[in-house]
Amino acid sequence: MWNALKNAFKIPELRDRILFTFLALAVFRLGVYIPIPGINIQAWSTYFGALSEGGAGGFIGFFDVFTGGAVEQFSIFLMSVTPYINAQIMLQLLTAVVPSLKEMLKEGEEGKKKYARYTRMLTVGLASLQGFLISFGLSSNTAIMAIPNRILFVLLSTSTLIGGTMFLLWLGERITEKGIGNGISVLIFGGIVARYPASIMQVVVALSPVQWAILLAIAVFTVVAIIYVQMGERRIEVQYARRVTGRRVYGGVSTHIPIKVNQGGVIPIIFSSAIMMLPQFIATAFPEGSGGRNVIQSLFAQTSPVYILLYGGMVFFFTFFYILQQMETHLMVRHYEGFVKKGKLRGRR
């Protein structure tokens, strides 16, 4: 593994991509510690601690991990890329029922650029709504506001949150273009991993050596099992008809369609988590201690049966939906006159 890393840095283009990715992650982590203007940080820290121990504690803790600690800092990146993920979900669902959107994706690079532009526009709209709900809900707590004017606070906070989300979207696109991997996924991964050192230290202090060893063994087994399932695939053999064009012979060869065991990956979980955050954001628009806020927070708490059923149902739905979106290989196979032999399913693991 170390030899592979050393060899990667010997290739100039790959080295530049790796360094650019780390630089982008450093910018992201720096932004997490820049608070939104007009916030009393000490008052927010006290309020955040109370929220973490209250009915919304599960959601606040989960969202704070998802954003890499941006919630605890009330950072300009507080909303992270959740509006973009929600925009992607909405457009993908619309693509399945709106023929014009589906045809747009088949128009090559121009169609994809237009689709990406629609995604950004929808992201701005969702970020505006989400940012307004957060800002308006917090504006009822005068201790948190460092600006006496409530309207000015809401406008400043909302615009800053929108700007932070759109900057992360831009940064993610630059990572995809000039770095390693999918930029948005890299940012989410970087935010989650950034909390690992502190979490590991808390576990080390709280557990005995035997408990720590058991937990480490479970963690290693879990990682190995996930990799094993993720790498597993079923290969369906496909035959192509032989064609003669002039003096050349085309086709007559066999290949395979790789069908992964976990075709959906983590996308359904990310989509479902992003949607389940929305009710809690809506709850912030209600005054602290009001009936509407308490009802929403109790219904959509992570330990609530309603939350568990909805979350599980959405994971199943998005798994099937995402697989169906990907599994259009049969159209390409049919176009090139390919076929699977009749009889018992032929395939290799």
Main sheet record: 4 strands, antiparallel
Radius of gyration from the CA trace?
24 Å
> What spatial form do the alpha-carbon principal axes imply?
globular
- The count of DSSP E runs of length 2 or more, i.e. the number of strands, is 6
Task: Classify the secondary structure makeup into a structural class.
Answer: alpha+beta
What is CATH's topology name of one domain?
Preprotein translocase SecY subunit
According to CATH, the homologous superfamily of one domain is: SecY subunit domain
Helix content: 55-70%
Q: Mean of the pLDDT scores?
A: 80
CATH architecture of one domain: Orthogonal Bundle
> What distance separates the N and C termini?
26 Å
Number of separate helices = 15
Low-pLDDT residue intervals, each spanning 5 or more residues: none
Strand content: 5-15%
**Tell me, what is the CATH class of one domain?**
Mainly Alpha
| Helix and strand run | HHHHHHHHHHHEEEEHHHHEE
Characterization of the model:
This protein is of the alpha+beta class. It has a domain at 2-197: Preprotein translocase SecY subunit (Orthogonal Bundle). 67% of the residues lie in helices and 7% in strands. The chain has 15 helices and six strands. The strands form two sheets. Strands 1, 4, 5 and 6 form a four-stranded antiparallel sheet that branches. Strand 2 and strand 3 form a beta hairpin. Helix 5 (82-97) crosses helix 7 and helix 7 runs antiparallel to helix 8 (150-178). The longest helix is centred in the middle third of the chain and has 30 residues, at 109-138. The protein starts with a helix and ends with a strand. The model has no long low-confidence stretch (mean pLDDT 80). It is found in: Cell membrane; Membrane. It comes from Mesotoga prima.
